Amino acid sequence: MDTALLHHLDHNYSLAFERDGNKVRLVVYQSGVENVCRKEVVKKLEKFTQLNEAHLFKGRLQLQKIETGITVIVKGQPVGIINEKAFAEMLNSSILAVGNSEK
């Protein structure tokens, strides 16, 4: 887990962005142990941050925009909020990592 791309949430949860080929892997850890993950293409994540889309993903890991940021939902339960700027910065850092890995 690359701590440069890690954001601490509530209740010992943290959100990580990890490169995985030409995709980004969003991982939620609980007390340092991987709980859920989702692989996604960068364009879909960028679209979520830039447009007025309120919800991203279905299933065990979901992201939902609210006034104060983006709520991270794991298995139907909110586990924390990340502000949109921090989310975008983590996404941009993972894009750079993906780009550098392809050279």
Notes on the structure:
With 103 residues, the protein is of the alpha+beta class. It has one domain: Transcriptional Co-activator pc4, Chain A. It is built from two helices and eight strands. The strands form two sheets. The protein has a four-stranded antiparallel β-sheet. Helix 1 (42-50) packs antiparallel against helix 2. The chain is globular.
What distinguishing features does this structure have?
Transcriptional Co-activator pc4, Chain A; alpha+beta; 103 residues; four-stranded antiparallel beta sheet; globular; 2 helices; 26% helix; single chain
Quick description:
With 103 residues, the chain is an alpha+beta fold.
**Percent of residues in beta strands:** over 45%
Radius of gyration computed on alpha carbons: 13 Å
Q: Biggest sheet: strands side by side, in what order? A: 1-2-3-4
**Helical region count?**
2
Uncertain runs:
none
CATH topology: Transcriptional Co-activator pc4, Chain A
Rounded mean pLDDT is 85
Distance between the termini: 21 Å
Number of domains: 1
Elements, N to C (H/E):
EEEEHEEEEH
Under the CATH scheme, the architecture is Roll
> What sort of overall outline do the alpha carbons produce when their principal axes are compared?
globular
CATH class: Mainly Beta
Instruction: Give me the count of strands.
Output: 8
Alpha-beta content class: alpha+beta
Binned, the helix content reads 25-40%
Tell me the major beta sheet: 4 strands, antiparallel
